[in-house]
Amino acid sequence: MHPILKPALRRGWHDLNTVQFGLTPAHAVVLGPVDTATGSFLTLLDGTRGVPLLREEAKRMGLRDGHVDALLERLSGAGLLDDATGGGPAAQALRGQTRVMDRLRPDHAALTVTTSEPAGAARRLAARHGMRVQVRGAGRVGAVVASVLAAAGVGHVDVRDGGCVEPWDVAPGGQPVEAVGERRDVSARQVVRAVAPARPPRPDRRKAPPRPSEREQAEAALCLVVIAPRDGLAVHAPDPSAAEDLVAAGIPHLYAGVAEATGIVGPLVLPGGTSCAHCLLLGRTDRHPTWPRLLAQWRSGHAARQVQACDLGLATAVAGLAAAHALTFLDGELPSSTGARWEASAPGLDWHARPVWPHPDCPCGAGEGGNGDETPVGGGPHDTMVR
User: Fold this and answer.
1) Are residues 155 and 282 in the same domain?
2) Helix, strand, coil % (nearest 5) of the chain?
3) pLDDT one digit per residue (tens) for the chain, 387 residues
4) What CATH number is associated with residue 191?
5) Which of 120, 138, 197, 277 could crosslink 184 through cysteines, CB 3.0-4.6 Å?
6) How many CB atoms lie within 10 A of CB 183?
């Protein structure tokens, strides 16, 4: 182990014996009392020395035996310590790729803030490289989500959509203006490859691929699907049949998009564990019996053929928030969109969460054993029901 105080957390001294790591209340830690010798010793925790060498340096500074180990344990317990060489072989391999690591250095720094264990950030960043994510939709939201995930180190990002790029699909970080007229999915995949820090190897299409083994099939399994339809209705009132394959296969999926002038992120669906699109439909129908009639009209009307409202600033905000929630899930945490929808409507743009309750009659199984009134993972005491 080569201990290093997390560089992402800025250091400031309240007084001679009290030091604060970090700026924001969510992540700041105040440590004290810290004597003068220990304060000087902290400067040696820069990742260039192993623990034995640090013990020798401590002796030369007049610190008592065992002080270094106790200090490292204290710093580690407070989530302030990283390991410059830890994280396993995959993390070490990533550190050896200087160009890739330079691209991902801000992401690594952010992960050190949100992980407590030493080398946890490097381990998570390396794990992203082997993950597979599919984005369904390559419009103003979906293409940007895909490019952000790829740029953040997710190794395999596939984009699915039909049709060709229209002028109104173009967005910064997404479909480029020169792609107008090209197939949406092909263009979005090119964007993904262009921004990825480390590109996955392309398959040799001249050779017939061998039949994958069970292990290879498991490794190729999707970690997450982001459903980002260009049709605003499809995210405001998602069709359960569009995600039947994901629910049946147990694949987590996250909805994101813009409906008229409202941005929507969520719910993140964990099949069998949290509410799904069918739960949302059944709950709305319980509260508003005319809901299916309205859906039938909206889905068959002429409005579906019009260019839909999708403010570029709002779409970009939705894509960024959706990508952040997706990365949180891929890194092993449950974001607040789990079982809930985050919404913001123009012009106020006040983001708020609306829980999506598991429905006892939904075949997904999330509502089994309950009455549908349980607070979902992403819910909170101030949330309101989905309208």
Assistant:
1) yes
2) 40, 15, 45
3) 899 999 999 999 999 999 999 999 999 999 989 999 999 999 999 999 999 999 999 999 988 889 999 999 999 999 999 999 988 999 989 998 999 999 999 999 999 999 988 999 999 999 999 999 999 999 999 999 999 999 999 999 999 999 999 999 999 999 999 999 999 999 999 999 999 998 654 555 555 555 555 444 444 589 999 999 999 999 999 999 999 999 999 999 999 999 999 999 999 999 999 999 999 999 999 999 999 999 998 888 655 567 899 999 999 999 999 999 999 999 999 999 999 999 999 999 999 999 999 999 999 988 775 444 444 444 333 332 233
4) 3.40.50.720
5) 138
6) 15
